[in-house]
Amino acid sequence: MKTLLRGKDLISLDDWDLQDIRTVLEVAYDLKKEYALGRYNDQLAHKTLFMLFFEQSTRTRNSLEAGMTQLGGHAHDLTPNKMQITHGESPRDTAKVLSRMGEAIAIRNCFYGVGNRYLNDIAEHAEIPVISMQDDIYHPLQGLADIMTIEEYFGRDPSGLRVAVSWAYATTHAKPLSVPQSQVLLFPRFGIDVVLAHPPEFPLQKDILEKARWNAAAGGGSLTIAESMDEAVENADVVIPKNWGGFAGFDSYTDDDEHARLMKENLEKYKSWICTEKLFSRARHGARIMHALPADRGHEITDELLDGEHSVIYDEAENRLHTAKSLLSLLLGGRP
């Protein structure tokens, strides 16, 4: 297990080797045991995490803030309108100033074509670790919690498992690509066979899929593209029905009314892409349902499945806390 993670950035888990990721998971298991016993430590006493949100958040915001509290530190809940960002302050100046006042910067910016670039701009100038709380391409914190949850239910060696990652219909908003992209990149590194399903107008980014196939070859897993939810769910050990927007379906996406209209028209073609009990019956005996949440109930998946015996969505959500605490402990308070 590697122990020298202090000061690292985490913008994508693809930037970390498997030993780094395994270290975070091992520490997360230990911290989860301590949490169950009501034991806390002040490892991050007097340390500050700056959390900058360009979008709403439930699990990410609260897992990191609660994690800092439980480790003896403090998290600042920031938005652009609480800072000078809305008045045009540059990423360089924001990064330099926050680096003088605390120990880490965490950012959520999911605007397509903008978010990941903004995080990297901050990281270029920051003198403290920068953590992605989700951008338009990656969601590393969700990936950590997902793989921890899979290991808890299927064992510490998940190689050979079949995980279905399927697009699903939703009416709430055009969700980022970052969750499924992080899953198809990460899971095959653990030897997992991922089956990805989506309508033709809702692909993932081509460069992400190319890297995911490379990860699969290196890690012993696989990535297969299916044409339907039925095909993806067949004999799956884990089923993840999740909506995402059609940003990567355009040759050049622009955030304007015309692209929003086209995406909406494409969306309405696929109302039948919902995970139902009939569909889930195609999965293997003992299969589990996961979802990063928030779920568009009755559109992505039925209430009966989300609230049923096969669902592990709240374990998955809780593991956001334990993996966040592990990451914060290692990056902010680990070995110098």
Which descriptors would you attach to this protein?
5-stranded parallel sheet; alpha/beta; 4-stranded parallel sheet; 14% strand; Rossmann fold; 336 residues; globular; 12 helices
Describe this structure in words.
The chain is of the alpha/beta class and 336 residues long. It folds into 2 domains: 13-138 and 317-333, Aspartate/ornithine carbamoyltransferase (Rossmann fold, 3-Layer(aba) Sandwich); 142-316, Rossmann fold, CATH 3.40.50.1370. Helix content is 40%, strand content 14%. The strands form 2 sheets. It has a 5-stranded parallel β-sheet. It has a 4-stranded parallel β-sheet with strand order 2-1-3-4, with helices on both faces. α5 (140-154) packs across α6. The longest helix has 21 residues, at 313-333. The mean pLDDT is 96.
Brief digest:
The protein has twelve helices and nine strands. The protein has 336 residues and is an alpha/beta fold.
Quaternary status: single chain
Low-confidence stretches: none
Taken in chain order, the helices and strands follow as HEHEHEHEHEHEHEHEHHEHH
Overall mean confidence score, pLDDT = 96
Q: How many DSSP helices?
A: 12
Q: How many strand elements?
A: 9
- Residue fraction in strands: 5-15%
Helix-residue proportion:
25-40%
Instruction: Could you tell me the CATH topology label of the largest domain.
Output: Rossmann fold
What general outline do the C-alpha atoms trace? globular
Strand order, sheet with most strands: 7-6-5-8-9
| CATH class descriptor name of the largest domain | Alpha Beta
Total of domains: 2
Give me the Rg, rounded. Answer: 19 Å
Cα(first) to Cα(last) distance is 16 Å
